[in-house]
Amino acid sequence: MTRPSTVRAGPFHVVVRSYSDVMGSAARTLRRLRAAKDSGALTELCRRRSIELAVLFGSSVARAPVREPRDVDLALSFRRSGAGDLLTAIEDLAELVGGDDLDVMDLASAGPVALHRVFTTGELLYQAHPHLFAERQIFAINHYIETAPLRRSVLESLTR
């Protein structure tokens, strides 16, 4: 059993790295995560840790990858604010898939661009109830469109 050697929390995501780089590549981590979904182990973990949504996104699920992904990006949403312990959930996920190459984002902290990317290009792994992913997807797209003028204004002010 490999436990993470470092867990770094940023404002938007947490990166988990294991003791050993020998444990496997991002492709192996991705295969293990999908196998955990297929076997029901991921569903069990999500229920135990109050995770209501788990979505793969980023380079590991890109339609036309430019290069081999270096990590596996996973977005999580918890049932109630503060109900799920993000770090404990990440440790459990790292143990489930071998610990390497996980980059976990808490959807509660994500901005409109990150939400848009997760919900328009992501691969659903788990949803606590039917239609949850679709509901969040609609919200993410609308929020992205509504905040576009503000993002454009900020970018224009940076170029002046």
From TrEMBL:
InterPro entries: NT_sf, Polbeta, TA_antitoxin_MntA
Superkingdom in the source lineage: Bacteria
Polymerase beta nucleotidyltransferase domain segment(s): 44-128
Alphabetical list of Pfam families matching this protein: Polbeta (PF18765)
PANTHER family: NUCLEOTIDYLTRANSFERASE (PTHR43852)
Full protein name: Polymerase beta nucleotidyltransferase domain-containing protein
Species classification: Bacteria, Bacillati, Actinomycetota, Actinomycetes, Micrococcales
